[in-house]
Amino acid sequence: MPETENATHVFDAAVDLTTIDAGRYTGSTHPAYANMVGPFGGITAATLLNAVRLHPEVLGQPLSLTVNFAAPIEYGDFEVTAHPVRTNRSSQHWTIELTQDGVVTTTATAVFGKRRETWSSTELGRPTAPPAHDVDVRPMSDFVKWVGNYEMRFVDGGIPGPDAGPHPDSTSTLWVRDEPARPLDFTSLTALCDVFYPRAFLRRGHALPAGTVTLTIYFHADAAELAAQSDLPVLATARSNRFGQNYFDQTAHLWGVDDTLLATSHQLVYFKA
Amino acid sequence: MPETENATHVFDAAVDLTTIDAGRYTGSTHPAYANMVGPFGGITAATLLNAVRLHPEVLGQPLSLTVNFAAPIEYGDFEVTAHPVRTNRSSQHWTIELTQDGVVTTTATAVFGKRRETWSSTELGRPTAPPAHDVDVRPMSDFVKWVGNYEMRFVDGGIPGPDAGPHPDSTSTLWVRDEPARPLDFTSLTALCDVFYPRAFLRRGHALPAGTVTLTIYFHADAAELAAQSDLPVLATARSNRFGQNYFDQTAHLWGVDDTLLATSHQLVYFKA
User: Which of A43, A172, B166, B186 has the fewest CB atoms within 10 Å, measured from its CB?
Assistant: First the structure.
C-alpha cells in the first residue's frame, strides 16, 4: 500500500486488535516497537488500554491503568482479554490480560468513568523549559527500534554518552511527540508515559540491565484537553526516589499546552548494577 | 479473653484470614477499622497483601501492590482469593480479589520477589520535621472509627477545623504509628500508606464526599529495615498534583528511622466539590 495521508499511522498499526468476541481479541507485536527483549512496554500498555476502549460496554474515559509485566512477550501473535468486573453509575473497573499460547505474560487493571465539572486546581508546577523548537532533536541510536517512533528533544538528563560518568540526580525532561506527528489520544498518551529510558542509566552514566515490572498511569486530561493538544510536543519529566536491591521507582509528569497536566505515571523497575 | 501482653493486636485481628484452601480465604470486616462507608481502605489493602503472604507458594517480599476499590464493602464476612499468575526465578506476579456473596468488590495485583544487594541511592529528601515527641498528638474526632487505631502527630496540614478556609497547598506531614504501638511489618506499612485524610478537605477547608478509587504502593524497605523501625513513628507526607472533574491524585512518601524511605504510594481519589 503506498504511503498516503490516509495511510495507517505506525502507532495505530501497533496497537491494533482484532475482535474475536466482546472482550477477547488477537493482536501481534509490531517490529517498529521492538525493545531489547520483546516489545516496548509503552506499546503493550497502550494495546491493553485499547482492548478496553474497543469493548462494547465501555463507560466513559480512562481514569487509571496499572500494567504488570509478568513475563517477556515473544515477538509474534498474542491474545488479549478485557473484562468489566464492576460497572457503577459513573465508573467502571476492568481486569485485562495478555496471553501467548495460553500463558499469561501481562496483567492489568483499569478504571474508566464519566467526569463532571467540579472545583479544580493544578497544584504541581510545570518544569521550566525552552520552547520545543529551540531544543535540538537528539538523533537516537538504533540500539532499540521503538525510539524511532518518537521525536525527543531533551531539555535535561539526556541519554548518557560513551564518556558520561555518574550523575547526581535522576531527572530527565524532554519534549516528545509521536514520529511522524499524530494527534494525541488516551492510547498514545499511555505509551508516552513509558517513554523514559531507565533512570539508573542516568545515575550510573551507562546502560545496564533494567526493565519495568509494574506501571501505573493516572489520566488527568479529558478528551477536550487531548483534542487541544493535537500533535504538539508534550513536556515529559521523570525522576526516581529510591534505588536499591534490584529495584527503583520512577515518577513521571506529562504536560500539554496551556500548562495542562495530562497524566501522572509511576513505575517500579528491576535493575542490576 | 482478658487483655494481656500476648493478646492479639487489633490490627492483626482486622487483617486475619481463615484459609479454605491454598489461595482462598474467608475474613470479616473489623468494627475498629470502620470508615464512613465500609472499612478503611488501608485495612482492606493490608488484608489483600496478607492473602498473598499466607499463600504456601509465596516468593520473597512484597515489591508492589495495586488495589482497586470497585464497589463498597459491606460490614460482615467476605472471601479473598489470591492467585500466583506467574512465578519467575526472582519475582512473582499475583492477582487478588475480595468478594461478598460472589460479587467482586475489590481487585488487586501484587508483585513479590527476592532482592539482592546492588548499587543503592535514596535520591528524595526527607521532609524536615521536629522529633515526634515534640509534636502534639491530635485527639481525633469520633467521626470515623479507624483513626482511633493510629497515633497521629501532624507537623503540617492537619485536619481542617470548623473555621478553616481554603488552603493554598495539599501537603500533610505527620508522625504516625499504630495505636497501641506495634512493630512495623509489610502488612501494617500497607495500611499506613492510606492513612491520609482526603487532600481535597485540606485545599477546600472542609469535609466533602471523597473515596479512593485505586491505590498503588511500592515497597522500598526490606525486612531488615522494617525490623530496625520496630514500633517507632513513621514520618508520612502526602500531596496532590491535580484536582478536577471528580478526581484528584495523591502521592505519599513514608520515612522510617535513619532517613529510610520505606515506601512510596500513589492513589486516585473520587471527590465532589
Answer: B166
